[in-house]
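Objective 1.3, modelling of assemblies. Example input:
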Amino acid sequence: MDLMKLSFMLNGEATEIMVDPSDMLVDILRERLLLTGTKKGCGKGECGACTVIMDGAAVNSCMIPAMKAMGTTVQTIEGIGNPNQLHPLQESFMDEGAIQCGFCTPGMIMSAKALLDSTPHPDGAQIKEAIAGNICRCTGYVKIEKAILSASEKLKG
Amino acid sequence: MQTLNIVGKSVRRADALEKATGAAMFSTDLNMPGMLYAKTLRSPHAHARITNIDTAEAEKLPGVKAVATWKNTPRILFNTSATMTFTVPNQEPVLDQYIFDNVVRYVGDEVAAVAAVSERVAEEALKLIKVEYEILPAVFDPLEAMEEGAPDIHPCPAGKNIPGEIIKIPMGDVEKGFAESDVIYESRFTLPIQKQAQMETQAAVAQVSPDGNITVWSTTQTPHPSRMILATAFGVSQSKVRVLNPPYVGGGFGVRIGLSAKAEPIAVALSKLTGKPVKVVYSREEDFIASDTRHAGYVWVKLGAKKDGAFQAMELKGILNGGAYCSFSCETPGVLGAMGLGVYRIPNVSYYGHSVYTNITPAGAMRGFGNPQAMFAIEQAVDDIAAQLGMDPIELRNQNIMRVGDPWILPYPCSSTGLEECMHKAAEEVGWQRRGSMNETGSSILRGIGIGVGTHVSNAWPFCVDYDNAYITVHQDGSVMLATGVPDIGTGTTTTLPQLAAETIGIPLDQVAITFGDTLTTPFDIGSHASRTLYAAGTAVVAAANDVRRQILEYAGDLLKTAPDHLEFANGLIKKRGLRDSECVGSGVCQLNEAQNFITMKDLAYHAHLRNKQFIGVGRITPPNAPPWHAHVAEVEVDTETGMVTVVKVAAAHDVGKAINPMIVEGQIEGGVLMGVGYSISEEIKRDAKGKPLHVSMHKYLLPTAADAPEIKAIIVETHDPTGPFGAKGVGECGMVPTPAAIANAVYDATGIRFTELPLTPERVLKKLQEKK
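Predicted structure (tokens):
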């Protein structure tokens, strides 16, 4: 199939890359742009490990044809903080023990970030709803929910 | 008591920063120059002979580099599980798998694999492989598979389709015990197939060098045993094989104790054929249909007690569905029996159990390893006896639970127990006194509270060979490198083992680095499973750390002209006993010719280095074993109109001996509880009449989400076991063990109906509610 040029803002940088129109965004991020922080757990939009933020909304990047990202703004786990300046969610996930195997963590943090970006002070039910599409098999979600709550309190500052 | 600076503290995980920023590397993330991608052709039939396989068209497809089948891969029998490397003498490991065979034994069994320049091309090539099958009769239920007319799946000396040996554990005289009982409960329980559903699917990258050295990066929970299996399967010496994690593994829960299903051998076989690195990543559906599950099956229990509540006899029987290949099917029924008989002090007990081959996905190790199956049955029997006697279920349990020093069927003593405290704390957390009085007249929602208790192991012995090694090397600046062969599959090994080392030696935690999960850089260890990593590998780490500490104190003793046992060593400072830290200033190697009262670890290591000496500690141990204990109290709601069971809360109190890192321990308990809730109310793989599994995606399988999760309260009880490192015992699997029983007993409290089959789906519950009307 003919390659097409995809242009979008990725983690704050204007990005251009030739893609096959049948490629999914997750594969472009992971295999071509080598941003492997975004994980692939099912390829069917059922586990949330591949969650990225596109134009402000948390989406399963395994369900987004790459060309659908044309002209959008995409954030991945690599784009929300760095070791010297972590996002409050990254801090809280570390401090509250919300990370075990770590495979769901990037997607979970991105879903939580989309929530806090639009609803800075969510209640417990809103937190559960925001991460209901992100499967974690290690934690029972207890410390993840606590970490999101704690990050929202930090944001109140 | 010893003052602890690092052990017992909820320090932040060592891997947290990498995992929170997306930098952590997993097998599925690996990418190498020239790397090929593999895809596997799987059997559509439950049992068939391959009469012809033609790969010519597939090989012609541009981008295809090799096709592997039973014809061009080694024909050496192995077992994908680590059992083939650590089955205890005088038992023989069952070896019943080839990389590819000319007989397929379940829907999903491996037929061929393609290596190509992309996954897409590899998938296209699979469609071009022509396979002719002669369909063979298939059987799916273990009881039917034992019948005379059933197809033989593998040759079995112990009995029709029975892998390994039949396990019989007798103690006392059960017939006499039942004759002397005033009340008896007896029933058969039916258990479903549960899937680990770890977040990272099975994966491996293999690279075979021109001189035949094999390197495998994979998701295994046991790098060293995996190296042994691969060396056998490919007929090479272990010294030519390196297995390592990349270094992180996206969960395990038992699914890769040994190989990651067949990801490693398929990758190696294709790398040998192509001379290129080859990556195998199972799709989620492949992970569901073609990697080990929990054993489904049947458990029978018969329990007898006197009027005063004293248990007299228990008879336990387990027949488990082993699926198409043995995996851990010899050990699982043994653990089911041993743990089932280990909780209560009963003078007369007996157990009979084994697995049975059938034509379904192989069953292997999964968190709890037979124990949840046993306790689902036993804890409901105990509850029923309490109801028959009109006793409080906690009082009845308290009267009968095992105490320190009681005789039991295990070859190690019951060295500690906090079960009584666990029961009381969990009961208090949920409000046990409300039990039996929560239903409101006329409401369609019934409410109840129930309890389940249990024990488990802290390592694999006596069910498997179990020993551990660790090295600690002191660098020239006094920081250290700990080497241990266990991986970190998410359980926090790379944090808690350094905590043990730092505390034992007497240095700050940030002075300890760790190399792990790599056969090249670490000594042999049987890996991360059996709730053993902290207890067993930790015992070796403490031994190595004590060895280093002893060497350092001897050296410092000469230097400070003081007997080593008159020195103190903590926080990286060695000083004469009684000296305050504030007096220890101005140290330096330049001053060492003068009379001195103290020296820092940093200066001491450099001083030794300038005199041609390095400190290297070695820990080589065979760990004992110790019982962790746990009590879960669950509160449920049952909707009588829909049959829906909602778990409102689970309080899980665990005697872990000593929590080395309480935050990590709580995480283990909480995750285990939710996995147990899923097992209780939703998770199940069913199959159609031809053996094709139906629930092979996360949605179809009904994996619990945050929205489904009940309130979970983890409660830590510490009894300081005399055998464990700093008193610690196992915890990893324990959250699973009593959860289904606690929920089923709560549903009984709500409805008065005893459910003997898991999961408690709306269909099953509604059917029974209607029958009761």
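Chain B has 20 helices and 26 strands.
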